[in-house]
Amino acid sequence: MFYGMLVPALSAIFIIIVGNKLLAGQVDRGSMAYMLTAPVRRLTVTLTQTLYFIGALVVTSLLVNHYAEAGFAKKILVELNFGALAIAFAFAGIMFLASGVFNLSKLSLGTGGVLILAFILLAVIASFVNYGVSGLDDV
Predict the structure, then answer these.
(1) What is the reported pLDDT for 1?
(2) Cβ contact 91:114 at 8 Å
(3) For the whole model, what pTM was predicted?
(4) Which of 76, 97, 118, 124 keeps 20 to 30 A from 13, CA to CA?
(5) C-alpha span between 39 and 131 (Å, rounded)
(6) Which run of H or of E encompasses 23?
(7) Any idea what the Cα angle at residue 9 is, between residues 6 and 10, rounded to 5°?
(8) Residue range 31-86, pLDDT digits in tens
(9) In the predicted structure, residue 118 carries a pLDDT above the cut 90
(10) What would you measure as the largest C-alpha separation in the chain, in angstroms?
(11) Residue 129 is inside which H or E element, if any?
(12) Cα–Cα distance for residue pair 45/16, rounded to 1 Å
């Protein structure tokens, strides 16, 4: 269950909070305008924020790999956490795109956060579906 729904849900909370603060939060506070008054291009600021976001996700995944003792073989645990990291990267891409497109924090949170939560909700609903046909079960 932990790797089924809990890891994407916990990482989604982190991603929604941090992803919203990266670009749209700075525009709301006015610190983006202050940074852009210096001879720094917006692309440089955006790439720096992207590297921070990726680094935070990778470091978090490495810490989980290091400290997790789930009774699995170490190779299986690394593979599970790599899959969770891939899902976190997908969610981070959605949130970073929303944060870059919308310059207001509430619009970024409303678009990216709702999309991520909708994907998690759809995954929960899909986990309760029985894909089999009852007439074809072994007797």
Answers:
(1) 47
(2) no
(3) 0.77
(4) 76
(5) 57
(6) none
(7) 85
(8) 777 777 888 887 888 888 889 889 988 888 777 766 666 666 777 777 777 888 88
(9) yes
(10) 74
(11) none
(12) 19
